[in-house]
Amino acid sequence: MLPVIYSMSVSLDGFIAGPTGEIGWSAPFPEQMRFHLEQTRHIAAYVCGSGLYQEMLVWENAEETMAGEVEVEFARIWRALPKVVFSRTLETVTGNARLATADLATEIGRLRDQFDTGVIAVGGAGLAATAIEENLVDEYRQFVCPIILGEGTPYFPPLAAPVDLRLIESRTLNSRTVYLRYERTR
C-alpha cells in the first residue's frame, strides 16, 4: 500500500503561510530545489486543494518563464504527475489533473489501487488537515525555515488526540533550512 505524505515548508513556529497568506519566505534555495526535484520523482499522485493547485499552475509553462535547469526539470515532472483537486469553486482543471468526485479517503484508496510504486502526496492546509484528522497521513516531511511568523496558517490542525511519530530522516539544506521526515507509528 502506497504511503501518504504531507510535505511543506514551515516556519520555526509551525506555520506554512503568514497571517495574510504570504509564502515568499519559504522560496527554496537552489540546493533545496534540487532536493524537491528528487522527492517529486517518487510521487505517484498528488492530492491537493484548489488554492495549492492554482499556486502550482506556474509550473505548467515553466520552460517559457524560468531559465533554470532544475526548475525546468521539476516542471516536466510536475506536469506529468497525476493530480486530484478538491474544490468547491473550480468547475474545471487543466493539465494532468482531475476534480475529485468522492471524499478524501475514497480518492486516496483509488490512487493506492491505481499505482504500485511511489508515494501519494497531499498538499494544501485544509486538505492536509482533513487527511491528518482521518489518520490518512503516513509520513510528515517538513522543511523548517529560519523565520518566526507569530501567526498564520498552521502546518498541523488542532487534534483530538496525539499522533505518535518516529524520526526517520533529518538533514540541513543550504545551511539555513532543516529537513525533517517523520513516520506515524501504528
Automatic annotation (TrEMBL):
PANTHER family: 2,5-DIAMINO-6-RIBOSYLAMINO-4(3H)-PYRIMIDINONE 5'-PHOSPHATE REDUCTASE, DIHYDROFOLATE REDUCTASE FAMILY PROTEIN (AFU_ORTHOLOGUE AFUA_8G06820). It comes from Nocardia tengchongensis. Residues 4-178 form the Bacterial bifunctional deaminase-reductase C-terminal domain. It comes from the Bacteria. This is Dihydrofolate reductase family protein.
